[in-house]
Design brief:
Number of domains: 1
Order of helices and strands: HHH
Distance between the termini: 50 Å
Number of helices: 3
Strand content: under 5%
Number of strands: 0
Helix content: over 70%
Radius of gyration: 13 Å
Amino acid sequence: MSIIAWLVVGLLAGWIGSMIVNRSGEGVVMDIVLGIVGAVIGNFLLMTIFGATMGGIVGQLIVAVVGACLLIGIARMFTGRGRARTL
């Protein structure tokens, strides 16, 4: 994929992932970072578990969204954001 395609897929995947987990976007730059890092994480997990990755832009978008959701969930575990507060 070209760098423009990486940025577009990263933006879409990061935005979709943050909408699923947070119900709001994180901002354009952070959504791109989440999507690209999410794609790397998702592809790494697919290669490790199944020995192959998904091809095409739609396949990469799906993998990147799943990876972005995992990344946001892991970040929430370490930062404590999103935990229920008790009185």
